[in-house]
Amino acid sequence: MAGSGGPGHTPRMRFVMSVLAATIAAAVLFGVPVASSSAPVRVGSVYDGDTLTLTDGQKIRLLQVDTPELGSGECYSRAAHRVLLSLVPPGSVVAIDIDPALDRVDRYGRLLRYVLNGGLNVNLELVRRGAAAPYFYRGDRGRYAGVLMRAAQSAKAAKRGLWGACPRTLLDPDRAVDTGVSGPPAKSHTAAPIASRGSSCAPSYPTVCVPPPPPDLDCKNVPDRHFTVRWDVPDPDPHHFDGNHDGVGCESQMP
To answer: N- or C-end of the chain: fewer Cβ atoms within 10 A?
Structure first.
């Protein structure tokens, strides 16, 4: 055909191609996903900091990230769960996306996916906030590996999330994150008036003396059960002992 470049290289086509290239570059650099081809799905529940269940019963394990195990007493496990809950609360409609370079299902039958809520890459946002660390299982690196590492390095330098609360944590993407066990509660659990207990006791728990975080404590870390939780103070229930907001903490033993 006459003319240099043919119809595939018209000014309009070159413009379209340049916009597409810029979009892909932004996705790689800033973690903003290119539109997912998956159908929208609805979140049924959030199990822990990196796992959720859809309303159809499918379990989703977020790709390339890891958070402390909920219920294990690991430092920042409850906080990481709260962060994921805030990003994808039950009822949220999200997209889930595979990574062609990585496995699609893990050994427990969970779908391995990036979770996209609107324009937000939830996997990456967890790392940005310091609620998760990059985890490249078997050394396999997906398409967001580079930006996940940069986000983790930034969060660690700023001591955001687990990097500040659990200072012994190492940034090693080839291993599951290890934040250590949350520290022991204060030795004294004698009821005392808030005014006389000092700053070592969180004011939300007037009948027991539990220090404010960090570290983040579970009910298994404190010996008391069925204690009063006040919601009319600054920073109420900082350890989230009162999950149903009924004013009673640690009504049952944590698993």
So the answer is: N
Query: With left for phi above 0 and alpha for psi between -120 and 50, is residue 96 left, alpha or beta?
Result: beta
Q: Where are the domains of the chain?
A: 41-165, 182-255
Sequence-ordered list of residues with C-beta below 8 angstroms from that of 234, at least 6 positions apart, any chain:
203
pLDDT (tens digit, 9 = 90+) per residue, 56-96? 999 999 999 999 988 778 899 989 999 999 999 999 999 99
Q: Which residue has the tokens 């298994």?
A: 220
Residues 41-165, CATH architecture: Beta Barrel (2.40)
pLDDT in tens, 89-101: 999 999 999 999 9
* Six-digit token string for 253: 């033993």
Output the six-digit token pair for 107: 């050994």
DSSP string for residues in 170-227: ---TTS-----BPPPPPS------HHHH-TTS-TT-TTS--PPSSSPPPGGGSS--SE
User: Which of 127, 132, 54, 65 shows the shortest CA–CA distance to 99?
Assistant: 65
DSSP letters, 2-29, are -STT-GGG-HHHHHHHHHHHHHHHHHHH
Q: What's this model's pTM, rounded to 2 decimal places? A: 0.61
* Rounded Cα gap, residues 233 and 230, in angstroms: 7
CB-based contacts of 40, cutoff 8 Å, min separation 6? 93, 94, 95
Instruction: Provide the β-strand partners of residue 113.
Output: 62
pLDDT score at 170: 96
Range 169-188 average pLDDT: 77
CA distances from 137 to 65, 122, 164, 172 (A): 9, 19, 24, 11
